[in-house]
Amino acid sequence: MNLDYNCYHADFSSKFLSIQTCLATANLNLDAIFELLLINERGSMIATDPHPREKPKTPWYIALVPLNMALGSSGILSTLRALTLGASIAEVGVLAAANATATIIFSTFWGKLSDSSGARKKYLMILFFTLSPMFLALSVANSISEVILFYSMLAIFTSGISPIAVMLVVEICKSKNWEGEIARYNSVSSVGNICGLGLNTIAALFFEVSWLFYISSALCLIALLMLWRFAEEPEITLERYVFPIRSPRYAEKSLSPKSILHFLDARQFRIAEIKMFKFKPLQLLFLACFVQWAGIYFFSVGETPLMKSLGMSNSLILALNASASFVSIFAFGKIIPSLKQSRAKMIKRAIFWRSAFIFCWAGISLLLVYPTPYGFLFPFMLSVVWPVNYAMIWLPIVTYAISSSSANKKSTAQGALMVSIAIANALGSTLGGLVMSKFGYTIGFISAAIITLLSMPIFSRVDIV
């Protein structure tokens, strides 16, 4: 299972926003730019804190471990559950598209609701609590339409966790090192994802997929108790306009349709003048990412169904996901930073190898006609190597989006990037499911590889150095 699918299909907003915020803060050298201004709920300045304060003693981050143990496997478990009920590839595509659409819409809603009241812990407790019955609903779903419905409802609540949790990190921290705290938040979340996949890998050896949702439901309740016990409401909440390019809350604000459409607004173009070289650099970047990830999600929707058709067990598929998640951490932390090449070359190589791997999956689909005893080794090897290419393309893209946007629109650019990929998720998953259900895996994977390659000439017109 490739990392793109595992990240966005399972919980699009939480992983993306935390990684984005970490990368943004790493590039802005905030300590040299500003001092934190503490603002009361009515908007008046009450203090300027020139010295770092002591970090909170209550380790509320511990609640993220059981939470992400549940959320990290939600996408693959929902797909396996749908396949158990006899879902077609087209219906698996609808499942992914519905989740992505709900995430786009409600991530903004929950963030603004929390902002309006200034409450963080209260809304997180509501979200944690509602996740438990959603997993129970998935466990008793008896039809494909019910799985799609409940998985989409799950996304309604998971989409609000990251925008609120990231702000709770910043506001409780009360120091200039809040970017380090966000990195810590992201690291703890990743540990939870891997632990959850590992737990479900073992549990799948003894239980059906429907029973694994009970484990996820219980983990959400454990996370709720930990949050209630260890987390505290921030004494003050940071006012959004004081941190126009620095606050993670501004990243949440950037998801609003008005700010995002500033970059994607087609009204600023004349139909007769739409040419590649007329686009602004960031618009080209968003277009290239849309095409790239449309191809990726076009391919991803058929990945799990093919592995099931090859006879791979649920436990083996979950183990593959756990391995890919572990490799991704190593790739982001060690492999990519050690590469000595330009970002443009890194992106081109990543696109080439991504397309090549998808072509290899087209070859793997032939194992349905010519089966071999150890056929499962081929998808396993490809999926474990995939995260390295994901890191090769993702880090340069995010870095360029931050550095190329104006000072007061850096987070807006990240929000627009997030939405362009989410739309690609919804569209690519839907089309991929339809094509593969009608023409088969081989044609579908070849089509996905071609779409992925089409992003290369667009990326080449973006001056990424």
Looking at this protein, list some descriptive labels.
mainly alpha, 2 strands, Growth Hormone, Chain: A, about 475 residues, about 0% strand
Write the layout of secondary structure elements.
Elements: H1 3-28, E1 37-39, E2 45-48, H2 64-71, H3 74-84, H4 89-117, H5 121-140, H6 144-158, H7 161-173, H8 178-203, H9 209-230, H10 248-253, H11 257-264, H12 281-300, H13 303-309, H14 314-338, H15 343-364, H16 377-404, H17 410-439, H18 441-460
Describe this structure in words.
- It is a single chain.
- The chain has 18 helices and 2 strands.
- The radius of gyration is 22 Å and the shape is globular.
- It is an all-alpha fold and 465 residues long.
- Strands 1-2 form a two-stranded antiparallel sheet.
- 72% of the residues lie in helices and 2% in strands.
- A hairpin with a 5-residue loop joins β1 and β2.
Task: Write a concise synopsis of the structure shown.
This protein is mainly alpha-helical and 465 residues long.
CATH topology annotation: Growth Hormone, Chain: A
Q: Which shape, going by the Cα principal axes?
A: globular
CATH homologous superfamily label: MFS general substrate transporter like domains
Q: In order across it, which strands form the biggest sheet?
A: 1-2
Strand content: under 5%
Helix percentage range:
over 70%
Order of helices and strands: HEEHHHHHHHHHHHHHHHHH
Count of DSSP strands: 2
Cα-to-Cα separation, first versus last residue: 31 Å
Q: What's the main sheet like?
A: 2 strands, antiparallel
Instruction: Output the radius of gyration.
Output: 22 Å
Mean pLDDT: 76
CATH C-level = Mainly Alpha
Number of helices: 18
User: By helix and strand content, what is the structural category?
Assistant: mainly alpha
CATH architecture descriptor name: Up-down Bundle
